[in-house]
Predict the structure.
Amino acid sequence: MSWPLASEFSAMLQKPQLAFRDPQLKACRIERDAMGQPRPWSGAFAVVYKAILPESDRPLAVRAFTSASPERHERYAHCCRYVAGRRVSCLVAFEYRDAAIRSAGDGKWYPLVLMEWVEGQTLFDWLREKSLAGNTVALSGIAQKWLGVVHELGEKRIAHGDLSHSNVLVTANGALKLVDYDGMCVPALVGRRNLEVGVKPYQHPQRDEQTVLSLSLDNYSALVIYVALRSLAAEPGLWAKHVEATRNDKLLFSPGDFLAPRESALFQDLLRSPDAKVRELTERLKDASAGRLDGVPPLLPLVMRPTRTRREGPQTVTASVTRQPRRWNRLLWALAAGALAAALLAAAYGLWATGRRGSGSPAADSLQALAQPANRDLRPTDPAKTTEPQAGNLSKAAPGPKEPEKKAEAAAEPVELMSKPREVPKAAKPPPASDRPPASNPPPPAVAPFPAEEARKHQARWASYLKAPAEIINAIGMKLVLIPPGEFTMGSPDSDPKAQAGEIPEHRVRITKPFYFGAYEVTVGQFTKFARETGYQTEQEKREKRGRNWRVAVPGQSDNHPVVVVTWNDAVAFSGWLSRREKSTYRLPTEAEWEYACRAGTTTRWSFGDDASQLGDYAWYDANTNWQRPHPVGEKKPNAWGLFDMHGNVEEWSADWDRLDYYASSPVDNPAGPDQGTRRIARGGSFYYGLVDTRSAWRDRTRPDNCGVMAGFRLARTNVP
């Protein structure tokens, strides 16, 4: 079957009322060129037109395809559904429509994609302007924002599939927006054959028509673009030398540079860059080009890793990161941890053995570069402007607080799943005297690692000591289990190839007081009691009177399903109600408490070990749900503490705010996250996510007013007994 040419769509768009099926599009105005013809913005497999809707003057991008693809409908359906459940600031809203635009050639109807129209420059044009002007501040800033884009795509489990200078737009306020989603990969599409090979030299030499889709498909192009951006920030004159003078239409690199990197003048210049990280990443890029496509490492860990000193002839080239000798770091951490432990724990229940803080000091330049996820400044906001309820004061939490005011662009972002701003929950503060255990002969803390059978023994010892039950069921039918004090290793090791940037470094954490923790995620039935007693409306109900909400979130929903489509603010409001009702302090867990409870004494990827073949016994995730919906709570095996669905089903809000480098400076005792932020952390993965996202160390983050069918929560109770 032949497919229409761009000129045939242009001819039909002379009369939009005949070209479109949609009534609004029929009445739209199509942007025209100087000759009065519809202005086409052509791509490799599609042509784009700017349509201005009537009345609102809202511009949309109408993308008509100029080639056939039998899988296009199914793939776009997966991508639209997946992205719609998240707020991804580097993407724009888009919608695939079958049989929506007519061709003048044969009069037949063909599919199109509607997208938000982005006013801005291509990354190529923007870089040309700034490089020729020698604007190093702007160039450095755009390199940091690129890290933010890559970080956001990675944490949302999305691969764009065709990152290049023409598919990255820079808006008037400097935000980065990605367009052209034909090559996109989301978890449901992993393993399918890719329909595009992308643009050279941004794509790996091994990528071809037989390459299968994966969530690591962007690793190579992200590295190529970042090396170009960072090297221009260090030496803007590279643009004139390697782009203007050679009439290159790419960002510094040309395909020939990768065919013979030893003879490449560009590679030689980059290896002499005044920026040590550029030199290091150039070597990495050479290695990646010569290696396997599936062996290209993610960009963020490469940038975060401290730059080592190396020798070049008689000169020593030193990284821009200064580090104290590791033994001194360890000694200082040990002294600080010992003093803090003595001060906090002597008054509680005797001195614990002082543990040492994990290794490593943060890389100053790398962490600064990672401080800005996609198009947002993640530097701490002014506490005075943060109006969310504090997790440590749940009884007074007001429903539906608003975020600190953001840029106009952020307000238009599509709905996302979960994010992490932070308050200090009560469990992270020194316990009140009335909550402290008796001072005489407490049992030893549960210091990981320990076997599964020992977990129950720890619970029994502490239940006996506290004269409290190991399990309780409260007045609304919520079952909670006792989690004893203990110590564990939080995060993922650098050696884990699946570790994400926010999961490192590994570090020791002590939970210094016992708490009760929900055996199951909060259910629809429990949330219904709250809504009926108080008349509470969730933030989603207030926003969309007729849209999907927690009451009708998934087909076949029962009272035993986990409640979803609830924001962090909704979860805090529920916990405040339950605290007043039960006259006990219920709250969201700190992130450290959540991971400690999830691991249950283990140091492996999951609470049952490292064998991924067992995951289906413990978790609902994409392989056994077909990305459809969450399941009723408690249908899978529990972990050693007796907690169900800690892996998969729905991800769970925690109390903490998000900051990417927080693990590098996290305290040993009861870490409660950064003091402020814009996004909250969620844990555990969901029915829609892959096995990597169900690991004990995995972290998601999103704005506290976001919600979706993949996110719920479970509660901790501070009062024991």
Observations:
- Residues 394 and 572 are 6 Å apart (CA to CA).
- The longest strand covers residues 94-102.
- The radius of gyration is 27 Å.
- The chain has a mean pLDDT of 82.
